[in-house]
């Protein structure tokens, strides 16, 4: 079971209160987690990555296990602690502005 | 008793202001979608309880919201509140924010480039929906004007969107350039007398018209004169801020251009200036009295860099002669130390008798006049910066 956290604006869109838990088939990668997240919550499509290119939106970052994974390739395996559910995969709105 | 519903989009959410026909006491609902930019909300004239909203964010992109009960409850089309977001076999019911330029060989146009601010080619990138225009005949059909400039249409209540690709690809698209606010398609006017005729306007490309329901388009900018472009009378490249049409006279158009207030009496084929005695002919909004097609309203703004009213006085100007002769409307509006702006989609009129006129400011005020503009009072004073104002006249 993969744990995923995401910003309040997106939680409101998805109508969830906190962290969500997702089943991910096969290798646990950014792409697999986001595919599973968007399948469960289709209203999030286009808000985290582009509809067509599937690239991460510029002001969205991915963190886990105190690492910035934003610039990892989408098909790189996520840390074991994420794959086992010990740590969440964190989708974060980049800090911008004052 | 009849009433009005004012739909207000702001930088940090949407607000709905309602009153009976006297328009004296107002109920305020909101913020809806708190924290998001709401560029525009507009109700369907076919079904006034059907309201579409454009919700966007620099972080999370574009969302389309819809209400079917006059703005009490909202949902993303295809994902109703409280219902499963997927079908029984696990497929999403809808992705209402998928605005993808049509590059298919069958129906689309190649996605080339437009001009960037410095004149260099820049790839077309979808950013947000600026304006939603519901069909005059079908509540499930709605048009969206987007940045980077293109026109989209949904025929299923905002769930799926398809580009009206003939506009972007009609030939001049590669020479369009953004205005200071981005390269936005901000005005969509549907001709009530001719379902095949649509007018649109883009900053900074100009005005365009289709007479075949969107298949083909022509620039309609003859008579415009813009000193900030290399050829002041070019066919395209003009920074049109807003166009207004009265439904009883769809061949007559009024335009607030970056500089100059303009009028066309031949459906945009030619334009002439009607700035007359305005204190400045820069501004964003322009609108028309509901019952007097020759009575028009503008809010002059000092200049294209200062973006506030001349002399710190917030004045609506009204012409009852279709332009050139203008009178300042000041009663109830601040006449000193006022430095707000009124953005291009932030003025609207109701169709009660007398005509109500409404506008919102970047200072968060929404002003209303229930007497054709003769006097004004704020409905609210302290909203986030107002981006858009629309009004529904309710039975």
Key phrases:
heterodimer, A: 98 residues, alpha+beta, Ubiquitin-like (UB roll), 5-stranded mixed sheet, 3 helices, 19% strand, B: 395 residues, mainly beta, Methylamine Dehydrogenase, Chain H, 4-stranded antiparallel sheet, 29 strands, 1% helix, globular
List the helices and strands and how they pair.
The complex is a heterodimer of chains A (98) and B (395).
Chain A lengths: L1 E4 L2 H7 L5 E3 L7 H11 L19 E5 L2 E2 L11 H4 L5 E5 L5
Parallel strand pairs in A: 1-5
Antiparallel strand pairs in A: 1-2, 3-4, 3-5
Chain B lengths: L2 E8 L2 E8 L6 E6 L4 E7 L7 E7 L3 E7 L45 E3 L5 E3 L4 E7 L7 E6 L2 E5 L7 E2 L1 H4 L15 E7 L7 E6 L2 E5 L7 E2 L20 E6 L7 E5 L3 E4 L7 E2 L9 E6 L7 E5 L15 E4 L7 E3 L17 E3 L7 E4 L5 E4 L7 E4 L5 E9 L1
Antiparallel strand pairs in B: 1-2, 1-29, 2-3, 4-5, 5-6, 7-8, 9-10, 10-11, 11-12, 13-14, 14-15, 15-16, 17-18, 18-19, 19-20, 21-22, 22-23, 23-24, 25-26, 26-27, 27-28
Structural notes for this entry:
The complex is a heterodimer of chains A (about 100) and B (about 400). Chain A has about 100 residues and is α+β, with helices and mostly antiparallel strands. Chain A has a single domain, classed as Roll (Ubiquitin-like (UB roll)). In chain A, about 20% of the residues lie in helices and about 20% in strands. Chain A is built from three helices and five strands; from the N terminus they run E-H-E-H-E-E-H-E. Chain A has helices at about 10-15, 30-40, 80-85, and strands spanning about 1-5, 20, 60-65, 65-70, 90-95. By secondary structure, chain B is mostly beta strands. Chain B has one domain: 7 Propeller (Methylamine Dehydrogenase, Chain H). In chain B, about 0% of the residues lie in helices and about 35% in strands. Chain B contains one helix and 29 strands. In chain B, a hairpin with a 5-residue loop joins strand 26 (about 355-360) and strand 27 (about 365-370). The radius of gyration of chain B is 20 Å and the shape is globular. The model of chain B has no long low-confidence stretch (mean pLDDT about 95). The interface between A and B is medium-sized, with 23 and 24 residues.
